[in-house]
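ingest -> validate -> predict -> emit
validate: passed (alphabet ok, no gaps, 394 aa)
predict: started
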Amino acid sequence: RRMDVKQEKGKEQKREFDIVIWGASGFTGRLTAEYIAKEYGADLKWAIAGRDANKLNTISKELIAKNSKRLKLESIPIIIAGSLNLQSLVEMTSRTEVIISTVGPFTKYGSNLVEACIQTKTHYVDITGETWWVRKMIQTHHEEAQKQQVYIVSCCGTDSIPADLSAYFVTSQVKKLYSKSCSQVKGYVNMTGNMSISGGTAASAVQIFDSPEESKGFRRLFFLNSYDQNKSHTFFERDQFAPVYDHNVKSWTKPSLLSVCDNRIVRRSHELLSGTSNDYGESFKWNETEIASSFVAAMAVILLLGLFYVLMSIRFTRDLIKRFIMPAPGKGPSEETRARVSLEFKTIATIINPDKNEPKKTHSDIQVWRARIYRNCKDGCRECHMYIERQERI
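emit:
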């Protein structure tokens, strides 16, 4: 999913900041800023950015107060810019090596920032789950990003860091341990606690219904791949819509909400890594599901999702849900609520071409991810930035 480029050694000129957090006054942006302040402090040259100077100043003071020993600063640098003002974004991105964007919905507010990053040769990371917007950015900027040697890395939150890294890790381990490729890899989401979303996530989800033309075709299996509708698929690769008993995990499963994004991202990564030393293999196939406590629980979720889809498809009821049920932009679950929700992600891989002395199928059962939901977003973005920084130093 990133633009597949090879970085040149060195930089023409070291920039003012290593990293800028765009949207630091929002819910996830603030969590990201808190994480960097606590874990890295003054070890990084970083800044927070947004359109509201008062909110950013307040956040800067609060972060300094909480992490005074770690930061050793009087204030955190602040950059003011506007999502719809391309020139202000160009000025902002020209000052940093990497920018993390937490400003959504990305369909509305994300495109200018990607264009600015291409212009200023600034690496970009975001937490979107809007695959229709990601597809548009690929179609618009992929070739230029390769030419400019810029990383554009989307979906670095709960969708789709666990799934993307799981697929990469399990295929690498199977290749290392068995000298073989995987024919099928299935991801299993196991979520505990009552999941609650932020206002930004809610606004992004609503885009499917508010702008149906923008999101048209987002359920196609290879939506982010260059071959998209020209590739046939197997039954294994189809999105799940009904309860299924899975003998590998000895449990009923239900459709995973994350799979709408995860499945497309993993298949995009498979294509980008094809022909490299990290190639998943020509026969690689991926799918994802979520573990349910019982058939009744799985069926209840499916019925509720169906009802939600119908209500959101009607303008009147959609407006009521947006007004009275969905959280406002910048708001999200409390720290106590977040602490009660966790996600475990595991994969089971099936190896192809077994030798005569091997079993017909070999499963590699690996638990690769266990974390708090919103911690995934800030950790995923942050560590993606660290990877890019390491690439720059090679």
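The two ends are 21 Å apart (CA to CA).
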